[in-house]
Amino acid sequence: MYPVAVLAGGLGTRMAKRTGPRLPKALLEVAGRPFIDFKLAQLAAEGVTRVVMLLGHGADAIAVHVGDGAAYGLHIDTVPDGEVLLGTGGAVRRALPDLGDVFWVTYGDTYLSVPMAEVEKVFCRAGRQGLMTVFRNCDAWDASNVALREGLVAEYRKGEPPGTYEYIDYGMSILTAGAFAPFPPGTAFDLGAVLQSLIAAGELAGYEVPERFYEIGSEPGYREADAYLRDHAAWGVRRDGG
Questions:
Q1: Is the pTM of the predicted complex or chain greater than 0.85?
Q2: Where does residue 149 rank: exposed (0-12), middle (13-18), buried (19+ CB within 10 A)?
Q3: CB-based contacts of 82: which residues, under 8 Å, 6+ apart?
Q4: In the 8-state DSSP scheme, what is residue 28?
Q5: pLDDT tens digits, residue range 117-161?
Q6: Structure-derived torsion over alpha carbons of residues 93, 96, 101, 105, reported in degrees to the nearest 10
């Protein structure tokens, strides 16, 4: 299984009423545990062994909580943002020495059901520089933003009118180090710029997942994730013997 980069650096301003000024969103209690416990346990259940956490706000607290990853059956390295913020793309670019030639990228505030072994096989067969998992959302859970054509992501745009797109970026992609070559190290850029570069070159494959996503970046999302995890996912957390 490829290594997984987990982006967990945001301020979480929309959830400030729950997190306050100090608590990082990844440590927000959901279904009785810090959310990151569920995220990491799910990755381990899919067969992941190595995670690189890219940390910003609350980096020290997250690093202390996850430790070396042994509690989840993982090996975890942490890469803090540092004094110069590089954006989501720049943060991944900076971590390439820890990630290797091919790796997953996902977010620390999402709970996603991805058959990772199967997706890796599809990625290898596609022979592209990247793969985006997508969900047939039809604007149901958030605004859809992706068009698929012949197995490739043909368009990826946020903020379009309802009904423009059928699919949504599911929040978990496979990328190669080569996809970041156009972006000089130490520069600030968004991960979306990398994805757009791959789309323009016909180098971003797509994989449709069947199950909806859960997230804790908004109050409605938090309530849905809390209810879902209470019923479905507590078994997967190894921390403290869970």
A1: yes
A2: exposed
A3: none
A4: -
A5: 999 999 999 999 999 999 999 999 889 999 999 999 999 999 899
A6: -70
